[in-house]
């Protein structure tokens, strides 16, 4: 384990754990494999076209970072600050986001396969034009104001999520997993008059 060091992000070593480290700008394209970050800070906010394979980020602050066009495979974000993070056009496989702050998070035009968000605040987040392969589960998440426009929801499970309103394309809702309370709310949003 490496603790309380300041080093360039592209100097990380595969399989290493970094705790309370500060990472300066990478000089090359970021390609990380099996790296664990605990309570680390990042000078860099531009992570475009990066690769994160089998990584874990715990208690890291990444507000408004740009991860567009990145690969995130078998990676975990735990108790991280992800407010306003741009994950546009990402490919996520077997990855999880747990107990994070993800308001205004953008996942637009991404491909998600077997991914899960747990106990994460995703208020006003964007999942527009996302292609879901396998499953996408939101468990105990706050999804109020989330936008799923142009996303086919047949592999999406929001039955354990909380929300006051969602934006979605009604013709693409088939197969969405919801609970009975959510059914009445979503029908109301589609203009159906649900009697008490």
From TrEMBL:
* Listed InterPro entries: 5peptide_repeat, PA_immunity-related
| Highest taxon listed in the record's lineage | Bacteria
What start-end ranges are recorded for coiled-coil regions in this protein? Answer: none
- Origin species, per record, is Paucilactobacillus suebicus DSM 5007 = KCTC 3549
State the protein's name.
Quinolone resistance protein
The record, for PANTHER family, names: ANTIBIOTIC RESISTANCE PROTEIN MCBG (PTHR42999), PENTAPEPTIDE REPEAT-CONTAINING PROTEIN (PTHR42999:SF1)
**UniProt xrefs under Pfam families:** Pentapeptide_4
Could you list the residue ranges that cross the membrane? none
